[in-house]
Design goal:
alpha/beta; DHBP synthase; ten-stranded mixed beta sheet; single chain
């Protein structure tokens, strides 16, 4: 049975956040809001939960999963970051960006892009996401909640409950957080390449040229 948590989007209730984290640590798959649409999430070490997300998304083996992290210090554990990249990340986080970076040995191989040995990294600017990460004490493995055949991600908790009454262990309803996906920047070769234009502004690239 799917648990339903209605959490305040600006002042998340600690008791409810703790309940969601308990589901994640028990191997569950949860839907939760970010600063750019809802996402599916699970514990980084849970292979079974990750495969469930892959089936929900109908994703192939080359699907890029993302580690949602609390801060820059946590990113350094899971991705190779030089001084230039660090300064860029510091400028753009927290925010609606996904960064493709070379993975470190701390990232399970099943989470890495099999060809490029890279991993997506995010630090969302959303109180619920930050509260979940703080309570969990580590990153959450995530993928945008975009169902096969749909033209956009799912936008709020009620919609998710209607569309997915049995496929999840928990739904975090934090209200409508918009349908625009993140801007994806590939930094794996040391330079910023735009893979997808989304919510995050890319005007800084023109300024740097």
């Amino acid at each position: 049975m799917t648990q339903y948590f209605q959490i305040h989007p600006k002042n998340p209730q600690p008791r409810l956040i703790a309940g969601v984290v308990e589901v994640i640590r028990a191997g569950g798959v949860v839907a939760y809001p970010t600063d750019s649409s809802y996402a599916l999430g699970c514990d980084i070490g849970d292979k079974t939960a990750m495969e469930r997300i892959r089936r929900i998304r109908e994703a192939d083996k080359n699907h890029d999963f993302t580690l949602v992290c609390r801060d820059l210090s946590e990113i350094a554990t899971y991705a190779r970051v030089d001084n230039v990249i660090y300064r860029l990340l510091k400028t753009l986080t927290p925010g609606p960006y996904t960064f493709i970076l070379k993975a470190t040995r701390e990232v399970p191989r099943r989470l890495q892009n099999p060809k490029r040995k890279s991993i997506g990294i995010r630090i969302p600017e959303h109180p619920i996401t930050q509260a979940l990460l703080d309570a969990h004490g580590g990153p959450i493995m995530s993928s945008t909640l975009w169902l096969p055949g749909d033209s956009r991600p799912l936008v709020d908790g009620e919609e998710i409950r209607e569309r997915m009454p049995h496929g999840l262990d928990a739904i975090v309803d934090g209200g409508n957080c918009g349908i625009e996906a993140t801007t994806v920047l590939d930094l794996s070769d040391g330079e910023a390449r735009v893979i997808r234009v989304g919510k995050g502004d890319i005007g800084f690239l023109a300024d740097a040229s």
